[in-house]
Amino acid sequence: MVYNNITMTDLAAEYDVSKYERPSVTVDIVLFTIRERRLNVLLVRRGQWPFEGHLALPGGFVRPAETLDEAAGRELEEETGVAGIFLEQLRSFGDPGRDPRTWVITIAYTALLPSDKHVLRAGTDAAEAIWHAVEDMPSELAFDHTMILNYALLELRRRVLSDSSLIKNLLPQRFTLTRLQEVYEILLGRALDKRNFRKWLQSENLVQATTEEERGSHRPARLYEFVLESASRL
Amino acid sequence: MVYNNITMTDLAAEYDVSKYERPSVTVDIVLFTIRERRLNVLLVRRGQWPFEGHLALPGGFVRPAETLDEAAGRELEEETGVAGIFLEQLRSFGDPGRDPRTWVITIAYTALLPSDKHVLRAGTDAAEAIWHAVEDMPSELAFDHTMILNYALLELRRRVLSDSSLIKNLLPQRFTLTRLQEVYEILLGRALDKRNFRKWLQSENLVQATTEEERGSHRPARLYEFVLESASRL
DNA sequence: TAAATAGTGTCTATAAGACACTATTCT
DNA sequence: AGAATAGTGTCTTATAGACACTATTTA
């Protein structure tokens, strides 16, 4: 953007914007996926102060010429090598003192990774990126990331309930109905009745059968895929 | 992508947070109230460049030692003289170029003012603060405030639907059921059936009758108040 | 033929919507 | 007595939940 090259400081002085102290602004990403029938979140182990050795949510600084969404997408790709997945702003967190280094306001994002795309590329800055089940989370995440994660979990459940099409971002392109139900059960934290679930699915017009089926040591299950739809949301 | 030249590893090496450019961070407040049976929003007329003479959402810079919620509350009080009303974070907006002066990320808040507290104090920095019906909004608000307002409207309707107790923040302490229904109708943008509405209200356990009634040139209406409750939300 | 999972329907309870008249107060 | 608003109940439809057996494949 043009103002970046020259004029920023001058204008800032002239219009008094610069008399206010500026915070650093980061994006932090709560990336969820399903692994081994459990909801997992991506964490990185910090290599330096502060919170050295602690687990933290992946994230990084927002740069002047990008949108917030772009910043989140870029950080996510740097950490995981995955691009183009579902990514949505969650909330900002800016309590003073949340980062001992300096004044840092973070904008948290939620992302969902389909369960067949677990490949994690070694991040450029993340010493170690690991999936962690949300059930037995370490009590001490870095910064205020435990709070952010808890907020993300509540929001995830709320959003999945109010928009049934969200779930598609956690599943591979083709899947069995039993697998789909399983993902719902994991997110909602309770068992669902198979017949009621399938009856409800029909009324949602969310998935359609393919001709393919999945075979195992039992009766084969039909594979379904999501209907590519024009609209959902209220 | 220019920014790929700068890597996070540089930062990691020196803990040097300050070497990254910092944005200015503001809070902007979408303050709704009901006036003359219409949903109104508070706007201020800008007295200087940029967007001089345009209407804008009230707001201001976040200070280092305050939380984001505090910043929003403080700005709101500076503009309106009203403190302690319902205030909730909405979303962050940070597209590059949204403020022609410099890089400014804003965190938008939604606030609700009860319809008996319309007193607006002349703000310290707001040249002119005015209520404006959301129906016939001027097309050209300053910055990206039209987008923020539209987002706030969608969210307001969504939140009112999913949490019936929110409505209490738009009504005085005591009110008639007809008045309460009116507010719902304004927010939802459609007429409601009186008998169905009252039946639904009963099941919500949201309001309770007082012994007081309101008199006019017609049969008096009983006044109700909100039940002070322990919990709502999903 | 046993093990394993897929797939399928009815009945009941609750919630939401359509719909119209009587009651009370003031002027 | 007329104007104005308050207040009240039934029937219908849609949605959600409880509940158990048969079907098909592999080993």
Task: Walk me through this protein's architecture.
The structure is a homodimer of 234-residue chains. The first copy, chain A, is an alpha+beta fold. Chain A has helices at residues 7-14, 68-80, 145-162, 177-188, 194-204, and strands at 24-35, 38-45, 55-56, 59-61, 86-93, 104-113, 129-133, 175-176, 207-216, 218-226. In chain A, the strands form two sheets. In chain A, strands 1, 2, 3, 4, 5, 6 and 7 form a seven-stranded mixed beta sheet that branches. In chain A, a hairpin with a 2-residue loop joins strand 1 (24-35) and strand 2. Mean pLDDT of chain A is 88; it is low at 1-15. Chains A and B meet through helix 1, helix 2, strand 5, strand 6 and helix 3 of A and helix 1, strand 5, strand 6 and helix 3 of B. Chain A binds a DNA duplex (27 and 27 nucleotides) through residues 176-178, 193-196, 198-200, 203, 215-222.
Please supply descriptive tags for the structure shown above.
DNA-binding; homodimer; 26% helix; Nucleoside Triphosphate Pyrophosphohydrolase; 7-stranded mixed beta sheet; Arc Repressor Mutant, subunit A; 5 helices; alpha+beta; 3-stranded antiparallel beta sheet; 234 residues; 2 domains
